[in-house]
Amino acid sequence: ALVTNFALLPPLPNKPVLLGHASVKTLLHELGHVFHNILSQCKWTMFHGTRVPRDAVELPSQTFESLAWNPNFLRRIAMHYQTGEPIPDELVMGLGAARDEFAGVSLLHKVFRAAYDIAIYSSSDGDLDVGKLYTEMERNIELANTDNVNTHGLSTVRHFMRGYDSRYYAYLWGQALTADMLATRFAGTNIDSPQVWAEYRNIILKPGGSRDIMAQLVEFLGRKPNSKALL
Questions:
Q1: Distance in angstroms (rounded) separating the CA atoms of residues 151 and 226
Q2: Considering Cα of 40, then 44, then 50, then 53, what sign does the dihedral take?
Q3: Whole-prediction pTM value?
Q4: pLDDT for position 5
Q5: Whole-angstrom Cα distance, residue 103 to residue 21?
Q6: Could you write out the DSSP letters of every residue in the chain?
Q7: Among the listed residues 51, 23, 12, 59, the one whose alpha carbon sits nearest the alpha carbon of residue 209
Q8: DSSP string covering 98-162, please?
Q9: Residue 137's closest CA among 122, 162, 156, 118?
Q10: CA of 45: how far to CAs of 127, 203, 212, in Å?
Q11: Are 82 and 14 spatial neighbours (Cβ–Cβ below 8 Å)?
Q12: Active site residues
């Protein structure tokens, strides 16, 4: 089961609870982790599903999250709750344009968090002011101007202290791998190909952590992965 905590308004007599695009994106992301667990088949439990190297744990989630931007997928799931009309093409294109408009900002945000995460776990300074360092790196990398005021942004990211310590870069690495797979194997009509998805299931999801992730990627892509599609 997938338990979510979307910030949704209660239903009204004439209006049901509806998911916005951001919530749909989050739902698909978490479903990627669910499918990784459901479709995994390993001899040993310790390698099942998401029990993979942290470098690879976000790969399935970001692959499924990418569907939130796919026009064909959106036309199937997004429709007017009263008329049943599918989402208009101009709105689909607008969502994609908005994503591309702020792609650089989003990339810098991930670079900043990954660099900060590595910085605090690489430091031997027992008196390191982690809050001050957060503000400084945020300004220098993400170009966020906070007038040197500690905004306590560190307190909003539990990943640094829970499972992703020194490995937050996995989100950015997963994004690069996902972009490579989308451009190489899921481009065009292949996003709707049962054969390609079956290969993805058998090669990427099914082994869990029982195989070397690079070997899985090479088999699925037909070559070693790279970051060209992301950049």
A1: 36
A2: negative
A3: 0.85
A4: 81
A5: 17
A6: --------PPPBTTB-----HHHHHHHHHHHHHHHHHHS---SSGGGSTT-S-GGGTTHHHHHHHGGGG-HHHHHHH-B-TTT-PBPPHHHHHHHHHHHHHTHHHHHHHHHHHHHHHHHHHH---TT--HHHHHHHHHHHHS----TT----GGGG-GGGGTT-TT-TTHHHHHHHHHHHHHHHTSSGGGGG-HHHHHHHIIIIITTTTSS-HHHHHHHHHSS---STTT-
A7: 51
A8: HHHHTHHHHHHHHHHHHHHHHHHHH---TT--HHHHHHHHHHHHS----TT----GGGG-GGGGT
A9: 118
A10: 41, 18, 16
A11: no
A12: 30
User: Distance (Å, rounded) from C-alpha 38 to C-alpha 49?
Assistant: 7
Identity at 192, one-letter amino acid code = D
Rounded CA-CA distance 56/71 in Å is 26
Structure tokens at 144: 């966020």
| Per-position pLDDT tens, the chain of length 231 | 788 888 777 888 888 888 889 999 999 999 999 999 999 999 999 999 999 998 899 999 999 999 999 998 999 999 999 999 999 999 999 998 988 888 888 889 999 999 999 999 999 998 999 888 998 899 899 888 777 677 778 888 878 877 777 888 888 998 999 999 999 999 888 999 999 999 999 999 999 999 999 999 999 999 999 999 988
Q: Are 177 and 228 in contact (CB under 8 A)?
A: no
